[in-house]
C-alpha cells in the first residue's frame, strides 16, 4: 500500500467537537486544534485577580458593560473558541452574551502570559482578536512586569501604551480606567 494511503491525516476540530468535551476540560479550540491549557501558576492568578478586581471596581455602578474572567468560552469561528483571561463587553454589545458562550469579539481582552500559552496569546490568538474586531487588547507579562495595550485600527493592532513595573496604565477604550502597574505586580 502506498505511504500516502497509510499516513494519518490530522483532524480539524470544530465547535461541535469542542462543545462535547466535559465542562471544565482544560482545552481551547485554536485553529481547529484542541489545545490543552494547563492550570495557571499562582503568580498568573495574582495578576489576573488584581486586574479583574480593578476592572470590576471601575465598572461598579456605571452601567457601561460587563466584565468576565476565565474560564468562559468566546466563540470567534467554527475552529476558534478561546478562553481569554479577562474580557469586557460594552453595554451596546451585550447581545453577544449567549447562554453558553460569548458569541463574537468582546470589546476588550486581557491575556496574562504564561509559558504554556504565551505563543498562542502573542501570535495566533492576537491575530484572531485583531481580525475579529476586538477594540483593545492587553498583553500582560507577569515575569517581566510589562503591560502593553494595543488598539485596533482598521483590523490592525497598534501599540498604544507600554508600561514596565511602574506607571499608570490607561485604557483608550475606557478612558477613565487608570491602573497603577505597581498595584498589579505587587
Keywords:
186 residues, alpha+beta, tt1808, chain A, six-stranded mixed beta sheet, 32% strand
Characterization of the model:
This protein has helices spanning 3-6, 15-18, 42-59, 118-132, 181-184; strands spanning 27-30, 33-36, 65-69, 74-77, 80-82, 86-90, 102-103, 108-112, 136-141, 146-152, 157-164, 168-170, 178-180. The chain is of the alpha+beta class. Mean pLDDT is 92; it is low at 1-7. β1 and β2 (33-36) form a beta hairpin. It has five helices and 13 strands. 31% of the residues are buried. The strands form four sheets. It has a six-stranded mixed sheet, with helices on both faces. A three-stranded mixed sheet has the order 5-4-7, with helices on one face. The protein has a two-stranded antiparallel ribbon with strand order 1-2. Helices cover 24% and strands 32% of the residues. The radius of gyration is 17 Å and the shape is globular. It has a single domain, classed as tt1808, chain A (Alpha-Beta Complex), CATH 3.90.1570.
Layout of strands and helices, then pairs:
Blueprint: H1 3-6, H2 15-18, E1 27-30, E2 33-36, H3 42-59, E3 65-69, E4 74-77, E5 80-82, E6 86-90, E7 102-103, E8 108-112, H4 118-132, E9 136-141, E10 146-152, E11 157-164, E12 168-170, E13 178-180, H5 181-184
Parallel strand pairs: 4-7, 8-9
Antiparallel strand pairs: 1-2, 3-6, 4-5, 6-8, 9-10, 10-11, 12-13
